[in-house]
Structures are given as structure tokens and as C-alpha cells.
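User: Some background: our group keeps a shared notebook of sequences we're curious about, and every so often someone picks one and asks for a predicted structure to add to the entry. Today it's my turn. The entry only has the sequence so far, pasted here. Could you supply the structure so I can complete it?
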Amino acid sequence: MRWLRSSIHSIFSVRTSVSEAPPEGHHHSPDDVREAMLALAGLTTDDRAASLIRRIRYAADLEALWYMRGELMHMLARSHGEVIAREKLEDLSELFTDFLPRGLRSRPSPLNGSYRPSRPPGSDEG
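Assistant: Of course. Here's the predicted structure to add to the notebook entry:
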């Protein structure tokens, strides 16, 4: 029965939240991220926006907020256009930089200037 106690202990004692205190010298807080998302969600006024605002406000941690970015992007793109929505989400994503594990950070996209293709130019297959 010792294994049962240690299993239960490991389930409830380890907290893998990514919304811990920011690293030294960091000037954004998790609340700054939440407020920025609430401000962006408040740019549209429909039932989906109200639902998203409620979910952002009561999100348990930064990881939950990170995964809400897609819905926020969709909502902003529908009301303001994809280019504007992408710009606003890029600014928002920068607030997450030091809070999330490396695997959850945004990757370079061919749709913006930070993308570097893995193949050298002129090596088209065909």
C-alpha cells in the first residue's frame, strides 16, 4: 500500500503551473497578460466575446490563457481583419515569453518576417 500513498501524494503535491513569479529583471506579470487579453477581447461586442472574456477572467493559469489565444485571434480576425488580429496577437505573445516552457512558445511562421526556411534557396523538389 505504500505505492498507493506515494502515487496519491505525487498527484496532489506537484503543481505544474506555469504562472509562477516572473524571472529576475522581468517587467510583466501574469496579471498584465490577463489584462491585455481582456482588452483585446473587449474590442468586439457579441456573445462569443462575452463568453471569452469570462473564460479569460477566470482562467486558472497562464497556460490556459495561452491556449485561448487561438479563439481570441479568430474573434479579432472576424471583426477587424486577419492582418490587424495577427499584429495584436504578436504583441500579446511577447508578454508570455518568459512565463511559458519553451515547447509552448510561438514558432516562426512563414507569414511574418521572423521565418527562416530550413531548405536553402533554389533547392525546390519537383
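Suggested note for the entry: Helices lie at 2-13, 30-41, 47-57, 62-80, 82-96. The radius of gyration is 19 Å.
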